[in-house]
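Need the bound structure for N-carbamoyl-L-aspartate, inputs here:
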Amino acid sequence: MLKGRDIIDPEDLTKEDVEGLLLLAEDMIQRPKKYADVCKGKLLGSLFFEPSTRTRLSFESAMLRLGGEIIGFTDPDSTSVKKGESLPDTIKTVASYTDLIVMRHPKEGAPRYASDSTDIPIINAGDGGHQHPTQTLTDLLTIKQAKGEIKNFTIGLCGDLKFGRTVHSLIKAICKYEGIKFVLISPEELQIPEFIKEQILDKSKSEYKEVERLEQVIGDLDILYMTRVQKERFFNEADYVRLKDSYILDMDKLKDAKEDLTILHPLPRVNEISVEVDSDPRAWYFRQMRFGMYIRMALIASILGDEEC
Ligand code: NCD
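Answer from helper R.:
Posting the output first, comments after.
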């Protein structure tokens, strides 16, 4: 059903689409061999105009584990972009060699713009401080694995809610589920943008509150989604330095947390989770990054139409 579709924004997937992808990813976790050839003969274009570790490598390993192959770049300066080539021309070029393009770009809206210049599917792997729909799929798969289902929980989103695209996409997707309460934890300067409040939280009649201190709410949370302060989106270094260590989750803070709290982080972490937390069973962020590969396998197979779901 996802065959040939672009995935630019979480809204490009219905709740049913997401449900199908989660089930497929779970089957891929159980029976990876069954899917080892489903993308044989297919080529993925992996275009990273911005740094990435997990997103790029999980997409690429996903394609390889499905039997497909990859071309692409991680440094646009090594391509004709450096000579002044436009984004549509770069996209047309890669589209003439490949079956599917995954792209990350610093400019908000670039993947949508790119999708106008080709008929092959485009997946947004993060556009500036805007959206990151496949991280959201990763987060949803992790929540399902941790909690058994996606409903009736209180989720705290903590850190840079202004520039954090993973937070914007996660709120967009998760507000469709039943009984979700949001606690938005950030310094005043890094609060969630108004458009997310008005067009998503208010429109979906979601229950939410905004607070500045993590200690104040940690005991109420079922899920805590930590994020890094997005250095590269700041206009001014001094502001970044002032805000970067606003939150540091450590064992002391976790004393007040529930026994079955699920701690997520899209990673990379800078300082916001102490290393001592990594061995606590409530820390799910390293399992989360592995789920990212399986959900991307499910997504690639579905878009290329080689797997029924
Ligand atoms: C995130 C991103 O790129 O938005 N990382 C990721 O994709 N796993 C989060 C971040 O960079 O802070």
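Comments: The mean pLDDT is 96. The CA atoms of residues 238 and 244 lie 10 Å apart.
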